[in-house]
Amino acid sequence: xxxxxxxxxxxxxxxxxxxxxxxxxxxxxxxxxxxxxxxxxxxxxxxxxxxxxxxxxxxxxxxxxxxxxxxxxxxxxxxxxxxxxxxxxxxxxxxxxxxxxxxxxxxxxxxxxxxxxxxxxxxxxxxxxxxxxxxxxxxxxxxxxxxxxxxxxxxxxxxxxxxxxxxxxxxxxxxxxxxxxxxxxxxxxxxxxxxxxxxxxxxxxxxxxxxxxxxxxxxxxxxxxxxxxxxxxxxxxxxxxxxxxxxxxxxxxxxxxxxxxxxxxxxxxxxxxxxxxxxxxxxxxxxxxxxxxxxxxxxxxxxxxxxxxxxxxxxxxxxxxxxxxxxxxxxxxxx
Length: 335
Known about the structure:
Blueprint: H1 19-37, H2 44-53, H3 57-68, H4 77-105, H5 113-121, H6 128-142, H7 146-165, H8 169-174, H9 187-199, H10 201-228, H11 238-255, H12 263-268, H13 272-290, H14 295-315, H15 319-326
């Protein structure tokens, strides 16, 4: 089992991009989808488009994180926990606290340490992703055989089906969590990424290389047909689960196209975690300024503000502290 070998796509591919470059572009698509999940529109069709695109972001990020999670990198469980606290949990806590203070200042919530704690772990907030991601890593660190990975994938399929049918509502309420914090709704995507990278990566890349045009065309037809028919789907729905899995393959295929071979885009992809952490207040600011939601503007404003902070910190000699506070070194391949 060789988890470090990353093959090139076949020579018959019209896009000679290395898999690592593909995943960098894929992260950009994923963060755009995440932003789509948190914006809306007065136009019903555009609102539905945002909602449906918003379905794919978290599953893609978890899939990629699973692909780049290297168990052998960590000698002990404590070492893994320490690393992920520094790189993911701590920056999420800083961002969450700042966003929480921002929501207090604009009068949306009242000060409460309990509410702050709930906010930071992702209870009814977008920060659930960090909690879920680190938990997936801690579990898969111990249980990463093929049988366990398949069991995790099966558990997510079952959990989403039960969630969609409303049969997990009582359990969710007993544990005082949300569907988003239900680990079983997510761990399958992380396990799928780990499984493919460890056991079937060559085969997966060959499918992308040989059938990407078919994949792209078929997905677009289904996606826009569902949109035109106003078929609603999202997280924790039977159709949503199928579309998320199909969407991972689709966005992988899109990311491998030659048109996205750009050093600038690859560099920007380094900051997707930071954009995720701070895009929520930016959505509010952009809406206040222009009176409507704009996915691209939210993406660009969040990126520009972060880069301004980074270069200012570098100018005054605080780049290391800035990186620590924002999780700047957090990229999937370092997982």
